[in-house]
Amino acid sequence: QKEVEQNSGPLSVPEGAIASLNCTYSDRGSQSFFWYRQYSGKSPELIMFIYSNGDKEDGRFTAQLNKASQYVSLLIRDSQPSDSATYLCAAMGSSASKIIFGSGTRLSIRP
Amino acid sequence: GAVVSQHPSRVICKSGTSVKIECRSLDFQATTMFWYRQFPKQSLMLMATSNEGSKATYEQGVEKDKFLINHASLTLSTLTVTSAHPEDSSFYICSARAMAGQVGQPQHFGDGTRLSIL
Question: Which parts of chain B sit beneath pLDDT 50?
Answer without folding.
Answer: none
